[in-house]
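In this section we walk through a basic example: taking a raw amino acid sequence and producing a predicted 3D structure, encoded as discrete structure tokens. The instruction is simple. Fold the sequence below.
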Amino acid sequence: MTNDRIFQEHFLKFNSENLASVIHDAFAYLFPDKERLKEELERYVFPRLSFMAQDDKTDRFFLFENRYVETEWKDMIGVHYINTSYKVENTVMRVHLFGREEAQENAYIGCFTMRAINETQIMLSYIYPNWKYITYDDNVLNVMTYRKKVHIDGHEIVFHTYPLFVQDNATVACAEACLVSMSKYMHSRYDYTRIHVRNINDSHHTHKNKVYPSQGLRPTQMLEVLYTHNIQCEYEVYFTQWEFKEYIDYCIESALPVLVGVHVKSGMEKDKGKDVGHVIQIIGHTDVRAGKEYIVYDDSGSYLKSIGLSGFVGCVSWEKLRESLEAGKDFIIYPIHEKVYFLYDNFKKHVNDMLGLYSVRGNEKINQSGRTLLIDNRDVKKFLREKILDNPIVSQNIYEEALKLISMDMPHYLWCYEYEISEGYMLFFADPTYNRRTTKSIFINKSPLISKSRIGLLRYD
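The resulting token sequence is shown next.
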């Protein structure tokens, strides 16, 4: 076998037969039975790609890359598979999906990688959807993303994605997969430390047991792993549903992924029918006006299956998510930027106090429901420049308020509160570096800023 990385020469229609053919041609000694490989791809791989693959109306085409270096797979071989009887290669295969037979950015649906191991059910490694061109049941998806580049036979394609890492249930279970996936996103978007598979077991010290096969991680172990990698985070146990939902909402709007501990019915023979703990990720939401649902990534599919959905990415309402939460047991873990000292509960109190001072018209008090997010000051200034200062019809008062804000020295991150009114959106920005018991005003704009456009981080530019 040559170690040179090569692509197939022509686009092929994306189906199990064609994918099995190119894998068999590249690694016949791993997959000698092409027909069996095709059947196993249909069973174990294609269901996880249903949200990216073809529907009844649209074909997908693919280019196959036979060798691609992936750190996670090399780690998994080093800590486990080198000691097993499996046949493996230390590289992965990468498959690029297109909406038409052109290697163009506006046709690119995303890519996925497959581990070179003679066990088809654990082959799938990473899924990188191009969320700009993906819908789910005709819903508009608002997903946190980072810019990723791929090079395909001389072409560079840039797209916006979230890395979906898939467990093998031996070195990596659901909790580890979520930590690796989340940290890769946080590293790529915010320059956080990455969590590597090879370091996870040395990064926690409580409740140690047999390392392989992995039994998963408890919440305390997940927190230890995160703090060992200097990833600041918050941990909330489910008790009161609306507070719990508020935490999820503000994190998603802030482009911060939420790891959710839920309980699902076990499909394992020894625990069949019992409620077992499982960890999923929430990485976005659907259009609010159409009836908001959360975009859930479930790397084993067991949670989505338990609520009647197929595949590994699904849209789930709050009511449906709440049914899988047990009070006092289930939890959320989410990252929080290091220089944010004034946390959500403190900010919410200041917002409530501040809103009492303002009215929309006359003596009508503002309804204290709105949208809260943490946002980089660079995103704030970009928004002010594009949506207000460059807007020729904005009022003089609003223009001057925006100009004052854009010239300010600001902390790296700001709290933002947005409330919808008939004229557009009322915006307040606050400094999160104060002590939570400060007597100072935390708001940096003394009067509300009115914008015709929403401010947000779940976009593809």
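Looking at the output, two observations stand out. The CA atoms of residues 77 and 84 lie 9 Å apart. The two ends are 41 Å apart (CA to CA). In the next section we compare this with other chains.
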